[in-house]
């Protein structure tokens, strides 16, 4: 028994005295350096990245905008050298055809934009004060959609402004309009003239207020 005790003690001493460190795993390669974010310049005319303006229908106005806002980018895409490199491999016939197609596309887009503008300027916003009974009125607003106003958002804005009910409904002609509870016609006109919130781009001359009284003998 004493011999076994001494042997165990010796093994323990040897384990404690071993100074050899554990082998460490080799280190991997250092992580790559983070790349800076890519800078994308969007055209203020067609809203495409400027390198894709040529695929739109307003290349002339796009080039003018880029020349005014970023000369370096303009030189990169539209300098004589850049254009020559781009179309240098095309035949004269192909170049002529490309220019004609571009001009035709631009003319079509400009005609469409002019027609939309004329339609907008000819559109009328009608604010109608409607009498329900001697003490109760509602206000209807018709024609805002012609000026690209979202009717649901406008109704929400009116409801918040006047702390009353406002909703999008259809009038007897089947056209959508906003109906606001209460007589707020003058206040709505002031909001349109002041371009409050989303009520922007509506000429004051295109807005009128009319009054609709309850017919005698009506419900």
From TrEMBL:
Coiled-coil residue windows: none
Region (Disordered): 1-35
Record PANTHER family: DENSITY-REGULATED PROTEIN (PTHR12789:SF0), DENSITY-REGULATED PROTEIN HOMOLOG (PTHR12789)
Record protein name field: Translation machinery-associated protein 22
Entry's Gene Ontology cellular component terms: cytoplasm; ribonucleoprotein complex; ribosome
InterPro entries associated with the record: DENR/SUI1_TIF, DENR_C, DENR_eukaryotes, DENR_N, SUI1, SUI1_dom_sf
GO biological process: formation of translation preinitiation complex; translation reinitiation
The keyword Cytoplasm is annotated on this UniProt entry: yes
Subunit annotation: Interacts with the 40S ribosomal subunit.
Compartments reported by the entry: Cytoplasm
Superkingdom of origin: Eukaryota
Domain SUI1, chain residue ranges per copy: 125-196
Assigned keywords, A-Z: Cytoplasm, Initiation factor, Protein biosynthesis, Ribonucleoprotein, Ribosomal protein
Native source species: Lentinula edodes
Domain comment in the entry: The SUI1 domain may be involved in RNA binding.
Any one GO MF annotation of this record: translation initiation factor activity
């Amino acid at each position: 028994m004493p011999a076994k005790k001494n042997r165990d003690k010796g093994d323990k001493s040897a384990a404690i005295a071993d100074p050899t460190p554990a082998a460490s795993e080799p280190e991997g390669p250092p992580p790559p350096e983070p790349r800076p974010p890519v800078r994308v310049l969007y055209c203020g005319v067609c809203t495409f990245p400027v390198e894709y303006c040529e695929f739109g229908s307003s290349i002339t106005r796009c080039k003018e905008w880029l020349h005014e806002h970023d000369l370096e980018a303009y030189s990169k895409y539209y300098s004589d050298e850049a254009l020559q490199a781009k179309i240098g491999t095309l035949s004269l016939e192909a170049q002529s055809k490309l220019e004609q197609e571009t001009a035709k596309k631009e003319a079509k887009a400009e005609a469409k934009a002019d027609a939309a503008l004329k339609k907008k300027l000819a559109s009328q916003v009608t604010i109608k004060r409607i009498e329900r009974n001697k003490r109760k009125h509602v206000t209807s607003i018709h024609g805002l959609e012609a000026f690209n106003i979202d009717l649901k958002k406008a109704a929400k804005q009116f409801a918040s402004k006047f702390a009353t009910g406002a909703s999008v409904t259809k009038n007897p002609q089947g056209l959508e309009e906003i109906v606001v509870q209460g007589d707020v016609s003058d206040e709505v006109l002031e909001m349109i003239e002041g371009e409050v919130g989303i009520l922007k781009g509506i000429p004051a001359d295109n807005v009128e207020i009319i009054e609709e009284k309850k017919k005698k003998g009506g419900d």
